[in-house]
Fold this sequence. Notes:
Helix content: under 10%
Structural class: mainly beta
Oligomer: single chain
Largest sheet: 31 strands, mixed
Number of helices: 4
Distance between the termini: 110 Å
Amino acid sequence: MPIVQISRIQHRRGKKTDLPQLAAGELGWSIDEQKLYIGNGTVADGAPAVGNTEIMTAGSNTSFTTSVNHTYKGYLGTSTPITTGATGDLTRTLQQRLDDYVSVKDFGAVGDDSTADVVAIQRAIDQLYSETDENDVRARRTLFFPAGTYKINASLTIPPYAHLVGEGPDKTIIKNSASAPALVTEDDDGQVYGNIGDSSATTPTQIQISNMTIRTTVAYGGLSIDNATKVFVNNVKFQGTFVSGGTDASNSKGVTVRSTTVLPCANIVFDQCQFTGFARLVDMSYDVINVRFTNCDFSTAYYGALLGAEMDGSTNGLTKGPRDIQFSGSSWSTIGQQAIWVKPAAGADAGTGARNVISYGNWYAETVANNFDGVQSITEVPVIQFDNDECTSTLDFFERTSQRDTDFGDSTDPSNTPPEVQGIGLHKKAVKQITLADNTSSATDTGIYLPGFTDKGVRITYKMNRGAKYRTGVFTISSAGELCTFNDDFEETSDVGTTLSAITSDGDSTAGNDTIRVKYVTTSDSSTDVTMEYQIEILV
């Protein structure tokens, strides 16, 4: 039987000092330095120079990332490729290119919904924004959170200039199990509320948080903005443990904003955010200025936005209350009590307390302000309650009013309800159109109904047309309990033949007149109905 022998190829090996000139393509292994070389060959063969070239290994003095160059190529189609320099392409090392992007995973965070990531994430935040030269803006890189669930069991403290970005709500999740807010602002010396700004530390400012979910597994808050200015929160979902039918809990707050008297919070924006599953989705009592909520979604809470509940006029940071607070273009649903409640200042001087609160163009579902009992519940409360002045509701839509008229009321017996907006403020509704029938000799309901429990002044700006006849006017109502008076001031091109009036009536068959009803009478005019467009403003 023949003997089969497998040949062995042996390359040069030995100490680095003994490595000779290698032939073209010949390999030589430096045993002592753990480095690999290949021979260049001769110049005659085409080599740029005679010698040995090191092949990069784990033992090389230079790393792959510093020795490999990168040039941005852009679009490589049929058109002319991008040129990165004035006279040609620019190159950078791979290390430089990778350093443009910073991930929490570079600092040891895992994001597997199992590993405790709080130490790694805080280290990343501190190293990028607190331990760096604050005068060198190059150190303030965006910190990226790849998709995953990052478990934390203590608050993450957020210093000035922090910019935290995830891959989107319900993709990047910070999951908090601590009996404290998930995120809390701090100064650049690591000092938190009560000490922020001490020893001339830079206070929290220019903070951005976007594209992630802040989830709590206990009844505590999502984000506490303390003594901060210029904070922008975009496309963030704040998710707590509160469920429909629950009761108020002062620790369960989606977002809180806190100030001290000398360091008030100001210029804070929440855009396209979701707030769900907290007893109080937004809680602000401190001396805060200029906070905006735009295009947000508020759901599943006991209170929506509770403003001024703890303000007392004397405690540090609670002397004036939140001012210039706006909610616009947002939706509200499954909220047991008020969607927005501006609380009176307990024991405070006149002129203090939450004020200049504006609700503009918001949509309030029928599931708001009925203690989770449904439309026409006896436990209904106002959707918006302004218990301090300089507040306004403009062009808001209240679904429960429309739903009640459709499902429970009718044109002759409208169901009584608490007002959509109650307190000290202006409620300006959207424009509507109705038809007033021709030749109505007795006072007939227009379909304009207003809750009459509380004193109010009503201003209805309207336009009527009846064929070629036109009228513009202002119909005003003064209501006090069961009594109301009215006045119609108008100009018309010719007699439209329409008379408006207002009365109070018992809309729910209980004691007392509780509903303001606007009525009309029309003359006979060739069977021509009256088209009326109107907008209601209520001083509530």
